[in-house]
């Protein structure tokens, strides 16, 4: 039940974040757009930070794994396939 609540809050937060860029295109006054954007922003942040302690260790482990994958991806020194293509060009 704890995981269900935590992941539900996380999904709701992500949905709220995707709504924010749509608000400027609604047919509302500037003041209403600003109010709605602020309210959705606060709602997204509150649901995000409520989900974090509920998920606890699971989200920390997932975040560490995602960070490690990003570091490995960006630390590569070029594409090995590019080197093979250059070698094949030299042989022709």
Give the class from helix and strand content and strand pairing. mainly alpha
Q: Which whole number gives the mean pLDDT?
A: 85
Order of helices and strands: HHHH
Which band does the percent of strand residues land in? under 5%
**Silhouette:** flat
Helix count from the secondary structure assignment? 4
Oligomer: single chain
Total of domains: 1
**Alpha carbon gyration radius:** 22 Å
Number of strands: 0
Largest sheet: none
Uncertain stretches of 5 or more adjacent residues: none
Distance between the amino and carboxyl termini: 63 Å
Helix content: over 70%
Please describe what this structure looks like:
The protein has helices at 2-19, 30-55, 57-74, 80-91. It is mainly α and 92 residues long. It has one domain (2-91). The radius of gyration is 22 Å and the shape is flat.
Write the layout of secondary structure elements.
Blueprint: H1 2-19, H2 30-55, H3 57-74, H4 80-91
Helix pairs in contact: 1-2
Descriptive tags:
92 residues; mainly alpha; 0% strand; flat
Provide a compact summary of the structure.
The chain has 92 residues and is mainly alpha-helical. It has four helices and no strands. The protein has one domain.
């Amino acid at each position: 039940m704890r995981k269900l609540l935590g992941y539900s809050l996380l999904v709701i937060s992500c949905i709220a974040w995707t709504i924010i860029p749509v608000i400027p295109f609604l047919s509302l006054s500037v003041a209403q757009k600003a109010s709605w954007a602020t309210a959705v922003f606060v709602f997204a942040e509150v649901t995000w930070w409520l989900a974090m302690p509920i998920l606890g260790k699971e989200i920390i482990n997932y975040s560490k794994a995602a960070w490690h994958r990003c570091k490995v991806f960006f630390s590569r020194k070029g594409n090995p396939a590019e080197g093979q293509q250059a070698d094949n060009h030299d042989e022709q």
